[in-house]
Model the fold of this input.
Amino acid sequence: MRKYVIMGVQGSGKGTQSQLLAADLDLVHISVGDIFRWNVQNHTKIGAQVRRVMAAGELVGDDLVESVVRDRLTGHDWNYGFIIDGFPRNCRQAEFFVESYDIDGVIALDLPDSEVRRRVLSRRVCEGCGINYNLIDSSPAVPGQCDACGGQLTTREDDTDEALAVRLRDYHEKTTQVLDLFRRKEYVISVDARPPAEAVQAEIRQQLGLPRREEARSA
Ligand code: AMP
Done:
């Protein structure tokens, strides 16, 4: 059983890296942002509560976030463990989390703000299957259309200059304190998020002491 947290500023590849790790290790990938986006798209009560906050790039209130995370983790569909992305985002959330779960490692993806802007403003998401594209280095074969399911590609409502500025400020103010808290418990590995996704994944695995992907598959 492995329990990981992945942290990093928007556009640092948390979703991609989580999915790569989860697929090989049979972990459940839990993205708090995806859970909220699902609620917004499906017009649930939670969706109505968070829609405006999310579109402005602000953080959802801690009580709601904690109850969503608690509900998701009590689902117990994670026999081999989980990797949680987008949580915790401040010290209160981190304290709630370390009190409730033993964490095996925190992966911190490092990306300079200039690169964050470049990546986030060129990000497109498939409305059908949720795959992320980047118009800089992973454009779809047909513009505006998902390679995997043919769905329409759209821009996330919070991937704007204004919302990004708010999210970056929040990240530097609050999330950095979370990393300091985890660092005191010696959980944290730091990884440069600038290289291609496969290279970042290899570095994560090496630092966590996990087998390389090819070895994991043939074992
Ligand atoms: P993300 O996909 O992780 O960038 O999250 C998208 C949005 O969901 C954030 O900008 C917040 O509005 C909300 N959100 C996701 N995770 C959290 C969290 N741990 N605490 C507060 N708000 C969150």
Remarks:
- The domain at 2-112+162-218 is CATH 3.40.50.300 (Rossmann fold).
